[in-house]
Amino acid sequence: MRLGWSELDGRGLSGSLWRKFPLDAILAGNASVGIGFFDDFLGCCDTSLYDGYFTLETGTGTVTRIASDWDPTSAATEATTGIGLMQLFGTADNDEAIIAWGNALDAPLKLGRKDLAFECRFRCTTVEADDIGFFIGLAELGAQATTKCITANDAIDATYDLIGFQHLKAETTAVDGMYQVGGQTKVDGAVNTDLDTLATLTAATFKKVGFRYFADLDLLCWFVDGVEDVDARLRVSDLTAGTFPDDNFMTPLAVVATPAADDESIVLDWWACAQLT
């Protein structure tokens, strides 16, 4: 499969994030080049451990495939519709829904080793204060089985290594970049203001978020809708030792938590992650 960035940039993978990354070879199964995946959820089942995914549902939280609604007839409809949709949904206070790649067994990705890229496309059904918390990114193996990955106190559980994008209930439209080492204080927009509000949500409208780790440059770069936020760049060697999650293998994970008795959800259109070997 040969990917052309010009036709993918709108709904699909961002060429700016994946530039010079041999994703074609990786997706073709060339393990000597790298390991990774692109999943549009067209063939994904919502049964845990059935097709490479682990799911966790707390309370009335659900992880469910929903009908595609793709309509490219205008820029407006293209921005709000997608193909192969996976919904993480909650209906009551403290519901939680988690999906993680690797069947809760495999977590082959490790920052600090080789170049790595992650990106996904998602939308929130509604965007209001105090209504939803979510995290999308990479998580240490075990985080997918942690009930209340986002706690009832509107905090991300501090047990495991994480890196990605967070939205907590106190934030109405802001999505921060964040990372944490298990047992350490997490670093997000409140700690490093350059990670604050990397993305701004609009109800029922898709956003693409992702990051790229350049091993040779010792650099982590953050992207929203295919555009890098240059101010948010992290040079890992400049960070305090032991505060960056580069010592454990991780896997893609998405979680939604509802801090109120209202129907809330995020919808994943696709996600992709790969690392050179």
Q: What is the typical, i.e. mean, pLDDT?
A: 90
Span between termini: 20 Å
Number of domains: 1
Q: For the record, what CATH class applies?
A: Mainly Beta
Largest sheet properties: 9 strands, antiparallel
Global structural class: mainly beta
C-alpha geometry? globular
What name does the CATH topology carry? Jelly Rolls
Number of strands: 16
Per DSSP, what share of the residues sits in E-state strands of 2 or more residues? 35-45%
Radius of gyration: 17 Å
Poorly predicted ranges: none
CATH architecture: Sandwich
SSE topology string: HHHEEEHEEEEEEEEEEEEE
Alpha plus pi helix count: 4
Q: Approximately how much helix is present in the residues?
A: under 10%
Task: Explain the overall architecture.
With 277 residues, the chain is mainly β. It has a single domain (5-276), classed as Jelly Rolls (Sandwich). The protein is 7% helix and 37% strand. It is built from 4 helices and 16 strands. The chain has helices at 5-8, 15-18, 23-27, 75-80; strands spanning 34-39, 53-58, 62-66, 85-90, 95-101, 116-124, 133-140, 162-167, 174-180, 199-200, 207-214, 219-224, 227-228, 234-235, 250-258, 264-276. The strands form 2 sheets. Strands 1, 3, 4, 6, 11, 12, 13, 14 and 16 form a 9-stranded antiparallel β-sheet that branches. A 7-stranded antiparallel β-sheet has the order 2-5-15-7-8-9-10, with no helix packed on it. It is globular and about 45 Å long. The model has no long low-confidence stretch (mean pLDDT 90).
